Every structure is written in C-alpha cells, then in structure tokens.
Amino acid sequence: MEYVTAVPHPRSEAAAPDRSGRRSLALALLCGALGAAVALLATRQRWAEGTASVAGGAFPLTAKGSDVTGVPAALAIVGLAALVAVFAVRRAGRLVVSGVLALSGVGIVVAALLGASDSSALDEKAARASGDTSATVATLSHTGWPWVAVAGGALILLAGLLALRYGRRWPAMSGRYERGTDRPRRRPRPADPERPEEIWKALDRGEDPTGT
After folding, report:
1. In Å, how far from its chain's centre is CA 17?
2. Total-model pTM
3. Most confident of 87-96, 147-156, 177-186
C-alpha cells in the first residue's frame, strides 16, 4: 500500500513570495510614475476662474494650479526621486525612503484639497488688475483639475504604502555599482616559450630558446 505525503514542495513556497514581490514592484512603479505625471499635469491646468471689476467693466481672470499652490508639483518631483532611490538603499534606508514616498502623496492630496476652494490667487490678480489692494474676485468658480491632482497624490501614496509593505522583497542596486567595491583582477597568462615573440625575447637575453 502506497502512502502520499502532503508536504508542499520547497520551491512552491519560495515562488509565492517572489511572485508577490514582483507584482507589488510593478504596481508601485506604475502608480508612482503615473501619479507624479498626473500631479504635474494637473498643476499646469486652470484651477479657478472669475472676474474683476475695473473701470471698463468686468475683466476675466484665471489661475493655474501652480498659481494657487506650488506644493503638488514640488512633492511630485520628490516622489519620483524617492521612487528611484528605493532601489539604491537597503534595510532601514529603504524603509525611510518608502516613508518619504508615502508622505509625498499625502502632501499632494492635502495641498490639492485646500487649493480646490482657494481664491487667494485670483484675489491677488483682481487687486493688480483694478489697482485696488482691497479688491476681490467676483463670480468665482473652480474646475475639476484640483481633484485630478488629488488622484495623482493618492497614486503616489499607494506606491509608498506598497514600498513599506513589500519593499524588503524588491531587488536592490547591484553591488558592483556601489562605491568601494574592487573588481577582480585578471591573472596574467603564463608565457608560451614556443611563441615567436618569446623566442626573440630569449635570444635578446642571450638564452637558447631550444633548451639544448
């Protein structure tokens, strides 16, 4: 009578973490790069619009995301740098960089939410257009681009959370690219006495290359 054991194969147990590590790595790279691109794109678009009262009537005003706040664009660049730096560090350094990546996403989300209802940028433009420092913008309205920036920040946050959770399984920069590593030296090949150049060298030294 034959008995079949239910012990799992060691390779199947090792393959599962490898697969989860590769999947989380691909997802983090996609979310981080896409989130940064979306946040940068959103800051270049129109976030708010309104009018200012001048002598000739109503003057239309618009404000881009970069006019409202420069935080999302700056943190998007920081997030990209942190995403690349994750592979250059190990252990505690990777944990710190992953935290910076996640915090960059949080900062973008918060700044974009605050900018979604901000009117200070248009108020400043209204004051300059009318020549009255106390002037404010009228008929203020906001577009949906601040919420696009929020989505970009959420993607960067997700990439940071994935790095915190699965980063220890991700590959690191190869040791041969790290400073201070010495390359193995090649050993010189032994001289072949039958080669023509070796025979001539022996004759120059006054030796008999035939060995007789």
Report:
1. 24
2. 0.71
3. 147-156
